Amino acid sequence: MACRGCGSAELPTKGEIERIAEEIAASRETAVGVRPIDEETRSRRILTCAACEALAMEILCAHCGCFIAARALDPLRKCPHPAGNRWAFGDETPAEESAAG
Ligand code: SF4
After folding, report:
1. Spatial CA neighbour of 48 closest among 71, 25, 32
2. Nearest protein CA to atom 8 of ligand 1, as residue
3. Per residue in 35-64, is it b (16+ CB within 10 Å) or e — as a string?
4. Residue 27, CB-side half-sphere exposure with 13 Å CA sphere
5. Residue nearest atom 1 in ligand 1 by C-alpha distance
6. Which 3 state secondary structure label does DSSP give 94?
7. Which of 3, 67, 77, 100 is the most exposed place for a label (fewest CB within 10 A)?
């Protein structure tokens, strides 16, 4: 599976993905004032992905093509599973559910 964004078939390391996630989160905070999600919620999201049949190559979501480590850090993102948001833990803000993505 190649990256939908750049077409690269070369997978980044987990350290590179973490750096990318932090850069995305920092730019989001700068651009629209959205702070990264708390670490506990991010961990819950990543654990949910680890048990999901849509997890590809241990790092990508097959439904959106995102690196889950990056997507899970963004409070404005939800899980794109066609059967419903698997990151809905019942204690998240309404803003997350209504946001794009
Ligand atoms: S569908 Fe949701 S739970 Fe499954 S890998 Fe994608 S983001 Fe994670």
Report:
1. 71
2. 49
3. ebbeeebbebbbebbeebebbeeebbbeeb
4. 7
5. 81
6. helix
7. 100
Report the first-to-last Cα separation within the chain, whole angstroms: 21
DSSP label at 38? P
CA distance 93 to 75: 9
3-class secondary structure, 32 = helix
Let me know how long the chain is: 101
Q: Do 76 and 99 touch, CB atoms closer than 8 A?
A: yes
- Give the pLDDT confidence of 36-92 residue by residue, as tens digits: 889 999 999 999 999 999 999 889 999 999 999 989 988 889 999 999 999 998 765
Angle at 57 between CA 96 and CA 35, to 5 degrees: 25
- Alpha-carbon torsion 47, 49, 55, 59, what sign? negative
